[in-house]
Amino acid sequence: MTHDIGVGLIGYGLGGRAFHAPYVRVTPGMTLRAVVSRDPAKVRVDLPGMRVVPSVDALLAESGIDLVIVSSPDDLHAEHALAALGAGKHVLIDKPFATTLADARRIAEAAEAKGRMVTAFHNRRWDADFRTLRRMIDAGTLGTIVQFESHFDRWRPIPAPLWKEARQGGSWLDLGPHLVDQALALFGRPLAITADITTLRAGAPAPDYFHALLRYEQHRAILHSSKLAAQHGLRFAVHGTQGSWIKHGLDAQEAATVAGRLPEGADWGLDPVPGLLTRGDDPSTPVPVANEPGDYRLFWQALAAALRGDGANPVPASAAVAVMEVLDAGMRSALEGREITL
């Protein structure tokens, strides 16, 4: 691919507006050419002059579209991804990759059959806190990890009348893909999962709580989310044979793009809240650990390079399917009340 990568975006909700369009705009060699939306005026507030089309079929009929970003409601991800692959496009799918494991596998198989690249937007690999944790694990700062605890809690006691609150799988298919993908990126495939997925808020139309235990041979990974956590600052608690690292706060990139800032500048993705490292040989003196900068731009730059044949897919279909396998096993575990072997 020697020309600019033409991008078509399906959907202009939070995902399209905050996680996709701004990054396409700042990625060298990428050009956003058209957006599917029922509200052209909303799109053009942010993207003056942007071509807005009313349907996926209309987008796929546009000339100059190489990559299609699927940021539609979850239950349409598979339909839209398969349509784009059928039209010969490369595809980026927002999380969840699909709402069922069978659909995730169908997408991966279709991409292979068509000779097109499909990737999943597991952007939380490029959060400041996660990049910091990977650096520490790679350096052996914590020793051998024995317990990994990852939280994504919120205080939303009253369910909002939005489709996202009623999405299939609830929080487990909304926030769970982030936490599962991070665990797999660090530790690989677990041996088994035990999950409690339920609804705690009165009137909530879908699960709003999950607590999942991933069993590995020598350690455990705990993935937790609740929308009834008034104190929801804890993000990571990681314990190893040499020490512990506790991190509060959430990566700042989403808030920045929601506020209308383009992902540019040397200060992009800086996290001012350091994690605290407690060394086993000096447990009385926790030490602040400076954060790596968060940078979702790295995903987009890697994707552009891969589409040009100059690098690897940053999140290959196999990784997206692996996440879906754990999510599927988690739902079966919660339903059956038992550990599910992977």
TrEMBL record:
Which residue numbers delimit the Gfo/Idh/MocA-like oxidoreductase N-terminal domain?
5-120
The residues forming the signal peptide are none
A single GO molecular function term of this UniProt record: nucleotide binding
The protein's name:
Oxidoreductase
> Which parts of the sequence belong to the Gfo/Idh/MocA-like oxidoreductase C-terminal domain?
134-342
Under Pfam families, the record lists: GFO_IDH_MocA, GFO_IDH_MocA_C
Q: Which InterPro entries match?
A: Gfo/Idh/MocA-like_OxRdtase_C, Gfo/Idh/MocA-like_OxRdtase_N, Gfo/Idh/MocA_oxidoreduct, NAD(P)-bd_dom_sf
Taxonomy of origin reads: Bacteria, Pseudomonadati, Pseudomonadota, Alphaproteobacteria, Sphingomonadales
Q: Which UniProt keywords apply?
A: Oxidoreductase
Sequence similarity: Belongs to the Gfo/Idh/MocA family.
**Native organism:** Allosphingosinicella deserti
Task: Identify the PANTHER family for this entry.
Answer: CONSERVED EXPRESSED OXIDOREDUCTASE (EUROFUNG) (PTHR43708), CONSERVED EXPRESSED OXIDOREDUCTASE (EUROFUNG)-RELATED (PTHR43708:SF5)
Q: Which domain of life is it from?
A: Bacteria
UniProt keyword Protease present: no
By its UniProt entry, which NCBIfam families does this protein fall under?
PRK11579.1 (NF008607)
